[in-house]
Every structure is written in C-alpha cells, then in structure tokens.
Amino acid sequence: MNPVRDGRLRLRRLPLDTLRQNVAFIARDCPLFRPERFAGFGKVEVRAADGRALIASIDIVDDPVMVGPAQLGLPEPAFRRLGAAEGAEVTLTPVRPPASFRHVRRKVAGEVLDEAALGEIVRDLVGHRYSDMEVAAFLVACASALGPEELLALTRAMIDSGETLRWNRAPIADKHCVGGIPGNRTSLVVAPIVIAHGLTIPKTSSRAITSPAGTADTMELLARVDLGPDAMREVVERVGGCIVWGGHVNLAPADDVLISVERPLGLDTPEQMVASILAKKVAAGSTHLLIDLPVGPTAKVRGAAEAARLRKLFEFVGRRVGLQVQIDLTDGSQPVGRGVGPELEVRDVLAVLEGRPEAPESLRARCLRLAGQVLEFDPALAGGKGEARARDLLDGGDARRALDRLIEAQGPSPLTRRLGGIVDEVAAPRSGVVAAVDCFRIARIARMAGAPVDPGAGVEMLRRIGDPVSAGEPLFRIYASEEADFRFAAALAAEDSGVRLAGEVAP
C-alpha cells in the first residue's frame, strides 16, 4: 500500500520549537499536496487515523533530509498536541478561517458581542484555529472598546477554556501583582508566609515575555515549576500551597494564547489585564485574591484616575465570578528589591526569608504588607493583626521552613544557580541626590544583559530614590554571561541609565 497514493503522509517528528504556533512542514515536491493547493487557505487540519487532529499553518521545505516527499513534519509542540506516534499516517485538509472570526469583524466594526459570540472566539483560540494576525485583530478590536458586560463574558469564557481546580478546604487565597516593576518578587516570600500560617495558596505564576523575570523564572532556580495539574494538586494537599508555572497546568489556556501576541505588540489594556488575571485565579480554585497594583510614573499604572478605574473593573468582575478581590495600591516609582533578573532576585528573596543584614528593606516591607493582607482573609485571625502575624512568621523562621517544604514537594530545580561573570558598574555622571528611577529602562537593560534566558544576568540596584551619590560612584551593576549581551546592555545604559539625579533632564 502506498500511503501517498491513498491520500496520506507519514508523520515525522522535527527537533524544532515553534512555541505556541502549530506549524506543519511538507516537501515542495510532495506529490499529494502541492503548495499552490493551499493558496487562499491560511491553515490545514492534520488528522491521524484514530481521529485526533490539530489545526496548523503550512511551511514548505526544500531539504529532503528534513522532510521527504511522503512525509509531514511536525515540530515538538505540534507533535505533542497531536499525540500520534512518529511514522503514523496522517491526512491534510485545507481549513478556512474559523467561523468565529465573523464576530471579530463585528467587534472591529464597533458592535457589542454577547457571551455566546465571545465563547465561540475563545474556543477557537484554544483550538489554535487563529493565526497570530487574527489574534492581533481580536486584541486590537477589544482594546478599542470592551464594555463591562463584554469583559465579564470574556473572563467567564476564558475560565471555561481549560481545567478548573476545586479544593476541599476554604478559604483559598492568592496574591497577584499587575507587574511592570522590576525586582518586585514578593510572591516567593508572601506564599511561604501564608503557608506557614496555615492558609492554602495554590500560586500559579507566569514566565517573563518582555520583562527580565517572571515569578516562575525566579522560582525555577529553587524548585521545579513545570508541574501538571495532578502534581500541583498533590503538592498543595501536602504542603498547603505551591508556586508553579501556570502555562503547564492548562488553567484558562486562552489567556496564554492572547498574552503570547499582546505582549510583543505592547497591548496591555486594563480590560485584558483584568480578564487575564481573574480567569487564571478562578481556574486555580481561588476564593480570595489580593491584587498588588503599583502606581508610578514609569509603572504600568501611572496615575490615580487610571488606578481607580482598574480597581472598579477588578471588583466588578471579581464579584460576578465569585471571587473576593482586594486591591492594594503600592509604590511603583522604582524597583522594589535590589536584584533585577532571576538569580539576583532569588538572592534578595532568600536574604529576606533568612533575616540577613543585607536583605533589602524595601522588599521585606512590601512582603510583610502584602502577606498581612492575605492573612486577614483567614476568618480566625483578628482584623488588623495580619501584618504582625506575618512578621512573626518571617522573623521566627517559619516562612523559610515553609519554603524548604515547598521546594522538597515540587522537586529539585533543573537549573544551576550562578551569577553572570561579566560585571561592570554604571556610575553617576555628577554628584547629587537620586530623584527618579525609570523602571521600564532598568528592565530593558537587565533584559539586554540576557535575563531571563540567562538566569544569572541582570541588574543590581545600588541606589534608591533619595540616596545621595558622588560623581563616579556606582548607581547599579550589570551582570552578563555573554560578551555580546553585555555590550548591548552597557550601550543601552550609556545612552540612558534610567537613574535621574535632582535637576537632571532625561535624554
């Protein structure tokens, strides 16, 4: 039997990582499917004999060693999603744009979408039926106008797009920061404090996309974070909490699709932020949520009016999806700890948990403030006693011991901890007092240095707002492991360090 003659190709597993994208590779001289056949079709359906299928875009290969005429190549992500064995027979069928895209066109035209329409869109997003261009069209249309009821419907559809965890205890607490502030690695201190107190905190966190580190990137230097739903549940039942990567537990997976497109485009509207955060938390089974909302001139939220609107959106949607939400407006004028980058942030976190003299007071104070508010979700704790209880658990070593239990339960880190060996300091151009720090600029410098791909790269802040500095004294240090990364970061810092002295005008 000739599979090609019978309309089938043999599946080949390719050692490529196309991340979220499903891509199928066929040979240019494939006798069954000529490239011109797919003109006008953005994607194809790849179907195995057992009925399993996925939607993918097509790329053409001219190297017969990579993909032969009778083969269909699938990169690692798509191969895993299809679930068929290498060498299995598959068929291809051209696929027209998803039917739900008609609703996106309606939204572009300014119409209000109902829950059914948004549900269709979200199901097709999770099914990888949208190209990045089509996802971008949906995001831009929503950024222009998404009313409160549409936001609620989108959040509900995102919750329903994956698994929802249920716990046999209450309350289930969590804490989340809207982001944008370097070094704000409070979750790695807050979660152990909450666990030590006895509240349950199933913390799912993100990896960095455009920042120097996400909570999951930093935690991964201490323990495994790529746990599946069953392993996550086992850790929470055993320890009382976890700190894991949310992308591996299939909670509100539509959010991962949207984020992968919106972050590179720089789209981060209040509505998308609210839907993203609340969908993940409800899917994780949380009943009570504290939102850390930093406000500052270079933060995501830059003024009181913007913060007030965001607070109302969080409270409105949270109430309607059964989540008790509390908002804490915090200082977003500068990085929180000293370290910006996974390894530097881990050092700050452990210094705080272990009560070492070099622990950054800014990070310690922020952690106690936030942990205290989470602890007050416990009905057995007297009102106003949360921060004092958090301080006792931190200073007495209970939180550090809780982190140790968490690390043991989640499993050892697959990474080696070490700081980048290429180091240089960025000096003050003159004497003065630090008046401002550009959070966005510092984050860019740390990322240029290699963070988070290189966990040992980043920036160590040596001065804070209000600190005096003499000409030539260091403002911060840059750490890198690769010469090219270091040159990029140093050049960016030389152009503009992001640290302003009193009376200084930004370049």
Give the tally of structural domains: 4
Counting helices, strands and paired strands, the structural category is alpha/beta
Distance between the termini: 70 Å
Strand proportion, as a percent range, falls in 15-25%
CATH topology description of the largest domain? Pyrimidine Nucleoside Phosphorylase, Chain A, domain 2
Spatial order of the strands in the main sheet?
Answer: 1-5-2-4-3-6
Poorly predicted regions: 1-5
Shape estimate: globular
**Number of extended strands:** 18
Outline the biggest β-sheet: 6 strands, mixed, barrel
Number of helices: 17
CATH architecture of the largest domain: 3-Layer(aba) Sandwich
Provide a descriptive summary of the structure in words.
The chain has 507 residues and is an alpha/beta fold. The protein has 4 domains: 9-95, Barwin-like endoglucanases, CATH 2.40.40.20; 101-145, no CATH class; 173-249 and 267-410, Pyrimidine Nucleoside Phosphorylase, Chain A, domain 2 (3-Layer(aba) Sandwich), CATH 3.40.1030; 422-501, Aldehyde Oxidoreductase, domain 3 (Alpha-Beta Complex). Helix content is 39%, strand content 20%. It has 17 helices and 18 strands. The strands form 5 sheets. It has a 6-stranded mixed β-barrel with strand order 1-5-2-4-3-6. A hairpin with a 4-residue loop joins strand 3 (43-48) and strand 4 (53-61). Helix 6 (187-197) crosses helix 15 (398-410). The longest helix has 17 residues, at 304-320. The chain is globular and about 70 Å long. The chain starts with 8 loop residues before the first strand and ends in a 6-residue tail after the last strand. The model is unreliable at 1-5 (pLDDT under 50).
